[in-house]
């Protein structure tokens, strides 16, 4: 509503003002407050006009909201299509890059589709005979459990 004050909060402020100033003085206080706010607005408008006049015609499009760093960055970096930032942002796939690095660290080969294939010496690699299941010497299939975590080694 007004300065992000809800209707119940506004009612509470009116009741509080009546209790503090009394019903006789409240209209005078409201007039004085409105007059003060009007003078502050006039002062800020005249200061803004003075600054624009002193800057000259080169800065006629100058907006004081641009002095906020967030608005400045949004206006000059994110909305500027000449830089091509949107294409760079859309062309960069962080998940695929991380998957490739992880596969390289784990010794798996990366196929052309971006998926990883086990390295030839990897226990999870298929057997040379074409069997998808590789059995250990004792006849059991290998488990894909992660290696044990050693907190002292890190």
Describe the structure in your own words:
The two termini are 55 Å apart. This protein is an all-alpha fold. The chain has helices at residues 7-55, 69-78, 85-91, 94-106, and strands spanning 109-110, 116-117. β1 and β2 (116-117) form a beta hairpin. The longest helix has 49 residues, at 7-55. Helix content is 51%, strand content 3%. A two-stranded antiparallel sheet has the order 1-2. The chain has a domain at 1-62.
What is the string of SSEs from the N terminus onward? HHHHEE
Low-confidence sequence ranges? 127-132
Total strand segments: 2
Could you give a short account of the major beta sheet? 2 strands, antiparallel
Chain-averaged pLDDT = 75
Strand % is under 5%
Number of helices: 4
Estimated structural class: mainly alpha
Strand order, sheet with most strands: 1-2
Per the principal axes of the C-alpha atoms, what is the gross shape?
elongated
- How far apart, in Å, are the first and last alpha carbons? 55 Å
**What is the CA-atom radius of gyration, in angstroms?**
35 Å
Subcellular location: Cell membrane; Membrane
Keywords: Cell membrane, Membrane, Protein transport, Translocation, Transmembrane, Transmembrane helix, Transport
GO biological process, one term: protein transport by the Tat complex
InterPro entries: TatA/B/E, TatB
């Amino acid at each position: 509503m007004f300065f992000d004050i809800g209707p119940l909060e506004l009612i509470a402020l009116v009741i509080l003002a009546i209790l503090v100033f009394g019903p006789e003085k409240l209209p005078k206080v409201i007039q004085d407050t409105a007059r003060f706010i009007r003078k502050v607005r006039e002062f800020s408008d005249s200061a803004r006009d003075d600054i624009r006049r002193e800057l000259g015609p080169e800065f006629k499009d100058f907006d004081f909201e641009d002095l906020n760093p967030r608005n400045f960055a949004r206006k000059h970096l994110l909305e500027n299509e000449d830089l091509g930032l949107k294409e760079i942002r859309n062309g960069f796939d962080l998940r695929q890059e991380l998957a490739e690095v992880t596969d390289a660290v784990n010794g798996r080969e990366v196929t052309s589709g971006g998926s990883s294939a086990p390295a030839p010496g990897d226990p999870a690699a298929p057997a040379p005979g074409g069997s998808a299941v590789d059995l250990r010497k004792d006849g059991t299939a290998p488990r894909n459990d992660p290696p044990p975590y050693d907190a002292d080694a890190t």
